[in-house]
Design brief:
The complex is a heterodimer of chains A (99) and B (130). Chain A has 99 residues and is an alpha/beta fold. Chain A is built from four helices and five strands; from the N terminus they run E-H-E-H-E-H-E-H-E. Chain A is globular, with a radius of gyration of 12 Å. The chains are: A alpha/beta (99), B alpha/beta (130).
Chain lengths: 99, 130
């Protein structure tokens, strides 16, 4: 399953709840304000890093660039563009958007 | 109407604070706040801006919105000085929680503690929240 989150980890608990429900082997794509979760020094950094043991984390690069965060991404996060976003959705049998 | 008359006669100047607590681009709040700030400048009031919580993200350097096809308003923060809006307060605790330092910001600001921010808010005549 592909999980998609678009809310800032310091404004809503969507990233937390998503990571808690993402089963081993699933993929998590962070877009819009959720990309702050994969930036160095953010409050969500530790949770994202520990989640990497079980799930693959992706972030939308254009959203990171728009927020001045392109060069602050933590290691191990896979960056995708809009084409990559479409590929992720197409490859998975189902997906869930956490609002 | 009477307020308008007062202002034309150089009436009372009030202390206005705009409190920004949302990240830019994900929602419209940051841009709307800037619009109102610029309008308020026309009325020659005592304006200050506060950046708290995710609001500190609004001032990040290296904003490039080409990929999301939205207009960047990053440069507008630097233009505020030209409108005599020079009081920009950023909360230290909010930056620390997000791994951000003063060097990461696009404008010169005054970094204040939560307690200092509380005092600044308390001394305002009008506080507008975004």
């Amino acid at each position: 399953m592909l999980h998609i989150v678009n809310k800032s980890p310091t404004e809503r608990n969507s990233v937390d709840t998503c990571l808690a429900h993402a089963k081993k082997g699933s993929k998590v794509l962070l877009i819009e304000d959720a990309v702050y979760a994969v930036t160095r020094g953010s409050a969500a950094e530790a949770k994202v890093k520990s989640a990497m043991a079980d799930v693959t984390i992706y972030a939308l690069q254009p959203d990171l660039a728009a927020r001045g965060m392109a060069d602050r991404v933590i290691d191990g996060v896979n960056l995708v563009d809009y084409g990559g976003f479409v590929d992720l959705v197409a490859e998975q049998t189902n997906c869930q958007s956490w609002l | 109407m009477s307020d308008e008359m007062d202002m034309e006669e150089g009436g009372t100047i009030k202390k206005f604070m705009f409190v920004n607590r949302k990240a830019p681009y994900g929602t419209i709040y940051a841009l709307e706040s800037l619009e109102v700030v610029l309008i308020s400048a026309a009325f020659e009031q005592d304006v200050s801006l506060a950046f708290v919580d995710d609001g500190v993200y609004q001032l990040m350097k290296n904003i490039n919105t080409d990929g999301i096809e939205m207009k960047s308003f990053s440069k507008t923060y630097r233009a505020l000085e030209g409108y005599d809006i020079e009081k920009l307060y950023v909360e230290r605790e909010s930056m620390e929680m997000r791994g951000i330092t003063e060097d990461d910001l696009v404008v010169d600001v005054q970094v204040v503690s939560t307690a200092e921010m509380a005092d600044l808010m308390n001394e305002q005549d009008v506080v507008l929240s975004f």
